[in-house]
Specification:
- Helix content is about 60%, strand content about 5%.
- The chain is mainly α.
- It folds into 3 domains: about 100 residues, Fumarase/aspartase (N-terminal domain) (Fumarase C, Chain B, domain 1, Orthogonal Bundle), CATH 1.10.275; about 220 residues, Up-down Bundle (Fumarase C, Chain A, domain 2), CATH 1.20.200.10; about 100 residues, Ribonucleotide Reductase Protein R1, domain 1 (Orthogonal Bundle), CATH 1.10.40.
- The strands form 3 sheets. The chain has a two-stranded antiparallel sheet with strand order 1-2.
- A hairpin with a 2-residue loop joins strand 1 and strand 2.
- The longest helix is centred in the first third of the chain and has 37 residues.
Length: about 475
């Protein structure tokens, strides 16, 4: 960088420079440099407004805007290295600007503080990141819809307490995760509503005497509205914490799914087989095929939770308005964003390429008396109160366990020992296919219901709802 300025831009009040260790400790350029684009775009909008309002000469406004665009191109071309003694991305950009156009560049900071500048930058940056994460979530959702469509007839056991409970389909199971992701997308969009409020013009804490046009800047930068209190405008990080919370819930969903992938890939379940490209081996045991991707996603959920807790802890005791503690928000939320963006693509490809072992799923559904509730319902339809039916079937299950049989293997003579209401039609009533197909209520596993659910899911994604 040419024309390096030795003194810090705030150095007028100080008689001596800061210690190098203090510079290193105080600096945030190592992590907030990623906001260079947002910082420059915010400054361009601010400079344009200053010229429009006659706060600075229009020719100065135009020169600042032009030069900032040139700086942006140079940064993206790798022609600029940021300086640690300039502390942060805001001061670095301003120093570069001044080095190129001299005193005219010093006019940029008119009516602005680093406090409202950083509040602006982080909102712009996170708005862009949310858009990218949402796109990744949509891709994963589409994979789940495809998996569901391919497995409408793939019967598997549903579980409660990790015990086989009732027969469902793999499509039904996949659509449960689709619903989770739909809520994640909705939460991100809702978070954006509160994030997309423009704080510039709040100054350090009390606004400014300059006749700024805050609404103009908000419109230039695509904000929905402007902040209504200057103290809150510079000290609000609710949107950061809210996003961290949304990402934590998202990672919880991925972690739950990962846990099932890990179980299903085991020899004990053998419901799926992961593609070789998304598995690893053992350095000592040649037979191993480990679900490391799913395990890492499950593990990284804890990392994102930690970021959320860090943000809550940083903010919990801060008086109004801005405090340097708030610099700590960047690394935590950046880490959450980076972690989620790292996990989603590889997780999506992992489940897209996995092989569903349909025969093993069906065989598992045949065991564990998953049709017990259905034969209880069968007796209810024959006029027996549900509580009595429940007791009868409980005794029937115990008999089957003692005789190493499933319910559908019982003979009519054996059935009759439990109830004279049981007739030959019981075998059809308790088949796995019937158990699934008769659950036609909205949200159930019946094929017709799932076809409609998948259709609705595709429409929601297409509409961006």
């Amino acid at each position: 960088m040419n024309g390096v300025i030795d003194l810090k831009l705030w150095a007028g009040r100080f008689a001596k420079g800061t210690d190098k260790k203090v510079d290193d400790f105080n600096s945030s350029i190592s992590f907030d440099s990623r906001m260079y684009r947002q910082d420059i775009l915010g400054s361009i909008a601010h400079a344009k407004m200053l010229g429009k309002q006659g706060i600075i000469p229009n020719e100065d406004s135009v020169l600042i805007q032009t030069t900032l665009n040139e700086v942006l191109l140079d940064i993206e071309a790798g022609k600029i290295e940021f300086e640690i003694d300039a502390e942060d991305i805001h001061m670095n950009i301003e120093k570069i600007l001044i080095s190129r156009i001299g005193d005219t560049g010093k006019r940029l900071h008119t009516g602005r503080s680093r406090n409202d500048q950083v509040a602006l930058d982080i909102r712009l940056y996170l708005r862009d990141e949310i858009s990218e994460i949402e796109a990744l979530l949509v891709s994963l959702s589409e994979v789940l819809l495809n998996i569901a469509e391919e497995n409408l007839d793939t019967i598997m056991p549903g579980y409660t307490h990790l015990q086989r409970a009732q027969p469902i389909t793999f499509a039904h199971h996949a659509m449960a995760y689709f619903q989770m992701l739909s809520r994640d997308i909705s939460r991100l969009r809702d978070c954006t509503k509160r994030l997309n409020v423009m704080p510039l013009g709040s100054g350090a804490l009390a606004g400014t005497t300059y006749p700024l046009d805050r609404e103009f800047v908000a419109q230039e930068l695509g904000f929905d509205s402007i902040t209504q209190n200057s103290l809150d405008g510079v000290s609000d990080r609710d949107f950061v914490i809210e996003l961290a919370s949304c990402l934590s819930i998202l990672m919880m969903h991925l972690s739950r799914f990962s846990e099932e992938i890990i179980l299903w890939a085991s020899h004990e379940f053998a419901f799926i087989e992961l593609d070789d490209a998304y598995s690893t081996g053992s350095s000592i045991m040649p037979q191993k095929k480990n679900p490391d991707i799913a395990e890492l996603v499950r593990g990284k959920a804890g990392r994102v939770y930690g970021d959320l807790l860090a943000l809550l802890t940083v903010m919990k005791g801060l008086p109004l308005a801005y405090n340097k503690d708030m610099q700590e928000d960047k690394e935590a939320i950046f880490d959450s964003v980076d972690t989620v963006k790292m996990c989603l693509p590889v997780f999506t490809d992992m489940i897209r390429t996995m092989k569903v072992r349909k025969e093993n799923m069906y065989k598992a559904a045949q065991g564990g008396f998953t049709n017990a509730t259905d034969i209880a319902d069968y007796l209810v339809k024959k006029g027996i109160p549900f509580r009595d039916s429940h007791e009868i079937i409980g005794k029937m299950v115990l008999y089957c366990i003692n005789n190493n049989k499933s319910i559908d293997q019982l003979s009519m003579q054996e059935f009759s020992t439990f109830s004279d209401k049981i007739e030959a039609d019981v075998y059809e009533a308790i088949s796995l296919e019937t158990c699934v197909s008769q659950r036609k209520l909205t949200g159930g596993p019946a094929k017709s219901t799932l076809i409609e659910s998948i259709k609705n899911g595709r429409q929601c994604i297409k509409k961006g709802e």
